[in-house]
Write a structure and sequence with these properties.
4-stranded antiparallel beta sheet, 1 helix
Length: 55
Amino acid sequence: MPEMAPLYVRPYRRLVLKNPRFGLFYTPESRGLVVHAVCDLRQDRATILRHLRAS
């Protein structure tokens, strides 16, 4: 169920991990899931978006 995590910002989805301090950012594609980043969610949104756009 690759679409179970909510959209964070298109096309990335964010899944909060068991330790709620971390989030897994991924995109579902035809070949499977592509993981773009695992980030500390205590960072501000702008920092997280910079990490995602650098991938």
